[in-house]
Amino acid sequence: MTDHVPVDLYAIDLPADADADSQPLVVIHGLLGSADNWRSHLKVWQRKRRVVAVDLRNHGRSPHAEGMSYSAMSQDVLAALDKLGIEQAHILGHSMGGKVAITLARQAPQRCLSLMVADIAPVAYQHGHDDVFAALEQVRKGKPTNRREADALLAEHVDSRPTRLFLATNLVRDEQGIMGVRVGLDEIQHGYEAIIGEPDGDSPFEGATLVLRGADSHYVSDDMLPALREVLPRARLVTLKNAGHWLHADQPDAFQQAIDAFIAAQS
Fold first, then answer.
1. pLDDT of 135-145, one tens digit each?
2. Of 9, 116, 147, 226, whose Cβ has the fewest other Cβ atoms within 10 Å?
3. Where does the AB hydrolase-1 domain lie (predicted)?
């Protein structure tokens, strides 16, 4: 198995006025995301419990490393929890992060108090990010000096402005003022077959599970539900209206309420 990567953490200790019995929540972002994308939600959840959000390998502020298997990324997260002294936690993952969360729950169920999966199913998907990778490559080659130039380069391959704004969260400026790509783009592309594949693990996760999907998203379609039930037999499926794949951004209040209610029901 690939040695674990010491991933970057956004960790918030238990608030002074919180219930001492409250249990930690671990948040795992999706492909080309980062812990930063979740800060508004983390600020809400941190009022009640200890919260940890990770930057997966090749994402955010974490190191770049070959290998994007779900077992490897799950081991990265478990090693981070070991470092923080967290034995058990509620695990929430979105998209690719949802598959990491499923893998963690299947391979180390004793560490998972409950599992929450946002808009992903434990199935293999088709290729769907060629334009996104091409856009980031265009920025890397074009060496823009400001965000307007960077957006123009992204727009050569991606028409959707919301998608370009999301991709722009991966851009950083170097000492010469050149905007570059923060993520391990080469490593992610090399590992893309694993990313679009099924999560790792041999056995179903028998613990409490919430699967949230966006009504306007195709990532958890009805024909995927039998496969989902095989891997997550106790899954409760909730569909958020007027929400797409980024359901936590499209319907933040409904998303938070669904997560809070589910965790409260496990106490």
1. 999 999 999 99
2. 226
3. 24-251
